[in-house]
């Protein structure tokens, strides 16, 4: 019995009031987070409860915590995705041909942290052809940039003290994004597929997020450019917004009561 109590204590999430925006990081390696297991809410619980009710601890109900919590996809929601825009040219082939030639699961395995970049390079193409891995990484780095208008929106949300987390399907190369764009000024790299071993739209990934944050799903807003991922969020009770552009997202957030007013006298540190 004592053994199980010790295990439970080691899996306990810090009190949400300590998660004040933005979360401070001491190094990029600290961006990887283990997820508490077993989950407090399972898919079985979800299927037997049409309202997707969620048992939230007293800590999560602390009135000092600003709600709702905002969960942002990264690629093509906050950051331009070079894979679709630049990588085909790097390999000298159109996207259709690239999709035909590449291994069907290698990138997914890389995103889930199942293989490292060396193994990715070995199996990226079905026929096993070699390529310049460092050249590909440099191509990706050059292509990372903020989607138009999104950085200004994140800055406004930061000024209004919202708790914001990345919730993204991406490999360990998210660190290259951080190196270039310093996104951690605005949000925490909390939920990355390479750390969790799960990818959206796997419902268990969404449930892990809710369990770690200790929050009712109705107190979360999730933004993603992929409609299927948004639909999965809605399935577990999270408010989902389909990203199209920064202007429309501002309107959508405002309609949900999110304060995106910005103090023009406060310097925007870019």
How is the main sheet built? 5 strands, parallel
- How does the helix and strand content classify structurally? alpha/beta
Sequence of strands across the biggest β-sheet:
3-2-1-4-5
Contiguous uncertain segments of 5+ residues: 1-39, 48-60
What proportion of the residues form beta strands (DSSP E)?
Answer: 5-15%
Work out the number of β strands: 5
Approximately how much helix is present in the residues? 25-40%
- Give the C-alpha Rg: 19 Å
Tell me what the structure shows.
There is one protein chain. It contains 14 helices and five strands. Helix 13 links the parallel strand 4 and strand 5. The longest helix is centred in the middle third of the chain and has 11 residues.
Name a few traits of the molecule.
alpha/beta, 5 strands, globular, 270 residues, 5-stranded parallel β-sheet, single chain
What does the secondary structure layout of this molecule look like, with pairings?
Layout: H1 2-10, H2 43-47, E1 69-72, H3 82-85, H4 87-91, H5 95-101, H6 106-111, H7 117-123, H8 133-143, H9 150-159, E2 164-168, H10 174-181, E3 188-192, H11 193-196, H12 203-213, E4 220-224, H13 227-235, E5 239-242, H14 246-255
Parallel strand pairs: 1-2, 1-4, 2-3, 4-5
